[in-house]
Amino acid sequence: MTSECNSCLHATNIPSLRKFRLPSHAMPLIFQERFDIGREIRQRSVGAHVFHVPSYPPMRERGIDICGISEGSGAFEVERIGAPFHALLFCLAGTLELYQGDMRWLVEPGQLGILPAMERRGFRRIGDEPCRLVWLLLSDQSRWHYLHAAQCQVRDSMEGQTLHDAVSLFQRETARLNAGHADAQAVSALDLVVTLLERALHQLRPSAGWPAQLQALFAKADEDLSRDWSIDELAARLHITPAHLHRLCQQHLGCAPGQYLFQLRMRRAREMLQNGHPVGDVAQAVGYHELASFSRRFRQHFDMSPSAARGMPKMG
Question: Rounded to two decimals, what is the model's pTM?
């Protein structure tokens, strides 16, 4: 039952694995999980689904199922079988031990522990020092495909404290939103969490650099300029936020993504006009449904009308 799954976020001394079926709009898989969390462990979390308190459904669009902060002494162990999400643990204090079969990995302060989706994996607090960590459960989707691995991973990361602060802010703003405060800044806080998370995971992303990825992205858009490409869709193809795409385009292409897409449309329009295509056909081919709008933008960009450009010799 989903209510049982929610309550287990703060459960104490659950000795055996329990099976959960999450709702179809969330993660449509059955998985098992076991919690042994003492009352000394303090936790705050935000979930994408309505059975979490507080909840914020737009998290789902960013590929985050739950995120939270845990700290304190006492028992703290979580084990899952077949979980349809990747678990990321940024350790700020104390020591964690990841386990998978007979294998063990220590996660110390300043490190990130990753438990990939599926299989049977878990973690526990060890030693005498109180633990403090920020954690995220990332849905098993293409956005996070590079997190798939046969074993748990441990990486050095200095992003833990920054993410801790961002997740704490997000939790507070989401609680305000759920309480009916119209001035809550949950969406801005969520975008900050995602941006910082992407920065923390940059070292794990495929080796192709951002310039190459941007060129490949816009080459794909250039193949179908009649399509109404949105910035959200372009960003989703790189598994990043629109704000991150904007920054990357400014850094590597020298302009905003919308402006770069506009330049592709105008370049294609000029080529087609110089090859004698009718102005109306050209407008449709580069994504303009209104001829007047296309003509106005073309004149602003080239300082001539589309009709004047039609049939002109190509330069270079």
Answer: 0.64
